[in-house]
Model the fold of this input.
Amino acid sequence: MVSLEFPVVYFGGDYNPDQWPREIWHKDMELFKKAHVNILTLPVFSWALLQPAEDVYNFEWLDELLDMIHAQGIKVCLATATAAQPAWMSRKYPEILPVDFEGRKRKHSGRVNFCPNSPVFREFSGRLVRKMAERYKDHPALALWHVGNEYGTYCYCETCEKAFREWLKKRYGSIEELNRRWNMNFWGHTVYDWEDIVAPSGLSEVWRDGHLERTTFQPMVLDYKRFMSESSLACYKNEYDIIKGICPDIPVTTNLMGAFKPLDYFKWAEHMDIVSWDNYPGLKDSPGSIAFNHDLMRGLKGGQSFLLMEQTPNQTNWHPYNSLKRPGVMRLLSYQAMAHGADSVMYFQMRQSIGNCEKFHGALIEHAGHEHTRVFRECAQLGQELENLKGVIGARLKARAAILFDWENWWAVELSSGPTVQLSYVHQVKKYYEALFKRNITVDIIKPGDDLSPYALVIAPVLYMLKPGVAESLKDFVENGGTFLTTFMSGLVDENDRVTTLGYPGELKELLGIWVEEIDALEPGMCNSIRKTQAAEALSALTRERYACAMLCDVMEAQGAEVLAVYENDFYAGKPAVTRNAYGRGRAYYVGTDSEEDFIQELLEAICDECGIIPDFQVPQGVEITQRFKGDTCYTFVLNHLTEKVIVDLNNLTGKDLITGKTVAQRLELEPKGVAVLEEK
Ligand code: GLA
Ligand code: ZN
Done:
């Protein structure tokens, strides 16, 4: 049985000793001990060293390292090393190399530079992993398996094209069905034979327009994304299954990347024992947008704890401007991860490399090579503090509000030709998320089809694609007293991006009590405004009469719903913009336009009040509070994102601050970027 009750909060991260001579390894071990490191991830990119030629494997150096690490009492997150194949392999078996979006065959380079459907790649990676698993299965340092690294490359080679056809055959059964589901009579694109189908790339139906991906044939491209996500997943699974066959009790993961568009992580998580992810926010990312990614990652396995597999101890190298993490910020962001469900704090990288693109990426051990640096001191202090946080491991958050998130929906929304190129799915989702985050309301991120019964409020921004059964589950939820909110661009298409002919928003019409007749897109710089109606007077959280709106305006009619706000301008002035429908014992809200954030903030405040989701604490803006629960114990994380001292009112809470060991009652003073973790039994 895989146990996720880790003995410690894992603290450490990616270690690349293969870039260093042996003397340095010994020095590193001393420094790791000083920093309270208890886990090292390796050898992530060492395939070339482990298998220098087709029939030559060389594990001795790794044996030596694992023993050396174990002798320090440090655990190993053993990486399968398959993210970058050796040069000889690319040369001898060029079929491994992918073909890019433009149709160019890639040469050996970079990493994750392999065709996910290449049988040769699967064979070689499988062989390496089997050898590693057999060799290290009983190694006492082995704590976790880390498969590959940051999967995500799409390939358009002939192998993939052929495999795509097979995938389609399975999905649709017949060419007629495919023509129907892809609506191929459009532009006379009817196909007669599976062989007529080509991979949709820059050579065929897709082109890039700045950062946008445009296409004339959405269903085809959507299916290719599904197929590519599954193809990389199959690569991962190939390794996962081999490991499981040999080491059934050791948890296996791969490092995900938050809201990373190319891969449908909900599907991936089904095959991971524990989710782990790499958190690299930009300096300007708000605490809420970072928290969103954590909650998304926690949501992948229904609220189970995850691992923070990587973050930088300091700057990154790959943003255009790589600012230093200001004193205290790394610590604060580490606790923020834990506040949202992480059971580890791990870094990339332990020792800073001297050459190539990551030489200016932050590290525990910087180029100076010793521990007398700001970054080392901050890491070591954190490492020591985390030794007191073992109790938190496995503790869960409890949410009464959920946001629906769906990768396929994301793809479909942003592939759509019209009504506007301005619509970003994640941006819309985050607008709603941030509104709750600012009030310290815990949110679960769930996928369509998940059980809604634990929640009082479910929000589905831009639920453009309605999958079978989802409308029913939402109706049931509201019928039984739940509150649902959705927005413009919802209920419009099926899984093949075919528009509903029931009138918008399709299967959600009855639940919402509206009919959207037209959708108006405003050019950048244009706006409209919405005005509160009489019916909204009871929503006292709405403090203003009027709020701006832009980008998209639904022109709609209420068919049973109450109108809470109307447009003020244009030919649809006076028509409904925001509605609420009583349905069964619950209510369904519809926001038909992209309103300014204040409106969303206040509307959600009103809705939360209505459904009894009241924040437990009233704290200054910029102070974040979450709670994790285990048995009878509650862990309250209090995080000060501000650059000034704050006094936090804790109501009646009395708990032991696990960081200082002191008991805190009712009030807490936090330094700028300060943190407290209060344990209350
Ligand atoms: C990713 C990778 C690491 C490293 C870091 C640098 O997260 O997984 O190998 O390249 O980025 O930020
Ligand atoms: Zn390929």
